[in-house]
């Protein structure tokens, strides 16, 4: 990193002077500089401008007093944060030194100053300034190395915290009593070596879905896709279902299997609010009761149906055996956004693997290099900042807010002020935004029904551009295909026994919490984690 990059990292402007006329003057020598003059011909005073940029309080007086003490994780994090604060201050001082030396060079080469100094004196002063400048640059590189080391230390501290969250899921059998007594008296370096590695076990063939995972409201279709005389077949938890509208216009969901000869009902048609089997014409209402049996006596026959409701442009079902929850969650985009696209895809991956992928953004500059992350740099540290007991937060340094909404939804708001560039640490700092909803419906052990909704808080005219829906779908499929080839590879290895969550790191926090939430549901815990 050069001096300009260091100044940029400290949020310094490239130009430290106000707009003015300038005349470049070439000078023979080993470095090239130019003198800057204001409109009145005099040099511009930059000290007042620099003062606001570098007048940062020396943090050394506030150093944590832990020298010689055994540190716990929180104290170690406090020390690491102080190190970064001090190194930031030190780096600013180094950059200021370079700026002042540059000003001296300009002053020496000023035509007015040359009138009073000999060429030999000028050369001597320039040689001295070049030496000082070289030392200052060297100090900047040292500061950069210290900052990098401090960031690595902070990342390790966060990994310790992440390990504590996973303390109930470990693959290493350790004697906890002996470990607690021995590590309490060891310095932090020793504790780091002795800490057992903990992980989440997601390996082997996909198990049958636990019945408790069904006791939630699941969105299964967009309202706009379900017309009066149409039906939508789909799978949910390895069972075939079909959705259609009854005579009153309300949606219903019944088993996609005729009670007579097990013919798929979606091969038939919808007549006056009843779905008709194409084999012998039996007709069923939205509650599953058979209303017509042509060519025979009407019998009391019923096929299985699910609670089904429509809310805010989506069709919801309750596939569980428990009584349905009284309220359906809201998945509308934030106020000020307009929905531009609603897309449904059937994907050949288990829904948990797809959720793992959607809840991870650290992979973007490596995976999505030809779509939305084109031009993104690779940060030295990626973090997901979230409350201690929450399933939502924001990414740093990416301007993206993200939330996992149980049981299978991911909502994200992305700042897109400057495509291809990362501006700010929060989406709120950006002028325009894209809001996304991903619903990962568990169709079967290796199949997911994905519902994708995209909204913008700008350019509402795009909603009325012909064929725009096809363009949005093309882009969504292109992004998804970049992920799909990787997730399919994960699934293949998982089925052969590999653990896809073998070694979580700090930026995996949201995905880890999803897995912990899902495990708690399947264990039947009354109080689910991260849901308050």
UniProtKB/TrEMBL annotation:
One annotated GO molecular function: chlorophyllide a oxygenase activity
| UniProt superkingdom | Eukaryota
Q: Which Pfam families match?
A: PaO, Rieske
Coiled-coil stretches, from where to where? 119-146
| Domain Rieske: start-end pairs | 217-317
Keywords for the protein's UniProt record, in alphabetical order:
2Fe-2S, Chloroplast, Coiled coil, Iron, Iron-sulfur, Metal-binding, Oxidoreductase, Plastid, Transit peptide
Annotated segments matching region Disordered: 168-193
Question: Main site of residence?
Answer: plastid
Question: GO CC terms for this protein?
Answer: chloroplast
Q: Which SUPFAM superfamilies match?
A: Bet v1-like, ISP domain
Entry's localization field: Plastid, Chloroplast
InterPro entries in alphabetical order: ARHD_Rieske_2Fe_2S, Cholesterol_7-desaturase, PaO, Rieske_2Fe-2S, Rieske_2Fe-2S_sf
Polar residues: compositionally biased ranges: 172-188
What is the name of this protein? Answer: Rieske domain-containing protein
Organism source for this protein?
Answer: Chenopodium quinoa
